[in-house]
């Protein structure tokens, strides 16, 4: 089974109050994702799109990465590989592209939402950089239209492994 990016794109379009052009949407799941994503950020009031040629290339690269690898996170083995890789990438970054929130971050956020929700507390400790990034994004009002927040606190560890003085 593969995560359906089209569902995520529709949710993002709804958040951004942009209607995806149905004529441009291919009915094959997860095809034409790059075109759909750039359609979302082509609105004049969108601040989520790339600002220069380098950012365009980076956003395209992230879209392809999401479409090829991240959509398979429903498999535990694939999830571990992808989460570990993203955790390493985000060790020195706040956002995927440059120093600001872009559509690449939002698409990855929605694609990972289900797997991040399912992580145990101990699993979250293994992916601290990814969890920091995800937690940062989930508190952005643009991204989180409802009040659902995934808990990333580590208070549970104190109960499992009490400190010794």
UniProtKB/TrEMBL annotation:
GO terms for cellular component: aminoacyl-tRNA synthetase multienzyme complex; cytoplasm; nucleus. The lineage of its organism: Eukaryota, Metazoa, Ecdysozoa, Arthropoda, Hexapoda. It comes from the Eukaryota. Residues 1-157 form the GST C-terminal domain. InterPro entries: AIMP3/p18_C, Arc1-like_N, EEF1E1, Glutathione-S-Trfase_C-like, Glutathione-S-Trfase_C_sf. Coiled coil: none annotated. GO terms for biological process: positive regulation of DNA damage response, signal transduction by p53 class mediator. SUPFAM superfamilies: GST C-terminal domain-like. Gene3D superfamilies: 1.20.1050.10. This is GST C-terminal domain-containing protein.
């Amino acid at each position: 089974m593969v995560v359906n990016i089209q569902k995520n794109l529709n949710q993002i379009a709804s958040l951004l109050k942009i209607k995806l052009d149905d004529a441009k949407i291919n009915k094959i799941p997860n095809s034409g994702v790059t075109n759909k994503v750039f359609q979302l950020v082509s609105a004049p009031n969108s601040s989520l799109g790339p600002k220069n040629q380098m950012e365009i290339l980076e956003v395209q690269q992230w879209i392809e990465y999401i479409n090829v690898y991240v959509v398979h996170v429903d498999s535990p083995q694939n999830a571990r590989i992808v989460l570990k890789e993203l955790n390493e990438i985000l060790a020195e970054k706040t956002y995927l592209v440059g120093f600001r929130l872009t559509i690449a971050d939002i698409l990855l956020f929605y694609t990972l939402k289900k797997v991040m929700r399912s992580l145990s507390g101990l699993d979250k400790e293994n992916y601290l950089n990814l969890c920091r990034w995800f937690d940062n994004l989930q508190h952005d009002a643009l991204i989180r239209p409802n009040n659902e927040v995934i808990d990333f606190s580590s208070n549970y560890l104190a109960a499992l492994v009490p400190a010794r003085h």
